[in-house]
Design brief:
Blueprint: E1 13-18, E2 28-35, E3 49-56, E4 68-75, E5 96-97, H1 121-126
Antiparallel strand pairs: 1-3, 2-4, 2-5, 3-4
Length: 128
């Protein structure tokens, strides 16, 4: 969860790769996943979809198990982008942040928009 991601856990990030246009998203969920490599698109095993991921620089060291902790950004089927009137019509999940506040090595933060304030134009277009 974003509140639990410490700056020292993401200090070796060199890039964030987005698989979707983040300007169209009010928020993304983020987590630190244990992955076998520093770079490249990781496998995704959750419901929903992966919308981005972090790449680590050469100074990042694996854990004793050989895994690297990398951020993965994702959305679930009931998130606001696909269900604007649903569970997160207002508010956002605990691990959600406004994707436009993210950068390599920066946790990002929630904004009025990510908490259900003024919706993005993409979300407004999807409303019935």
């Amino acid at each position: 969860m974003s509140a639990l991601i410490a700056e020292d856990e993401i200090v070796h990030e060199v890039d964030l790769v987005w698989l979707e246009d983040i300007s169209r998203l009010d928020y993304v969920r983020q987590s630190l996943d244990r992955l076998p490599t520093r770079r490249g698109k990781p496998a995704y095993h959750r419901d929903g979809r992966m919308v981005g991921y972090a790449q680590l620089g050469p100074k990042a060291r694996p854990s004793r198990s050989g895994a690297f902790r990398r951020r993965v950004f994702w959305l679930l089927p009931h998130d606001r982008d696909t269900d604007p009137a649903g569970l997160y019509a207002t508010g956002a999940p605990a691990e959600a942040v406004d994707a436009r506040t993210l950068a390599p090595g920066s946790k990002g933060y929630k904004t009025e928009r990510s908490e259900g304030g003024p919706m993005s134009s993409a979300t407004r277009e999807r409303l019935p």
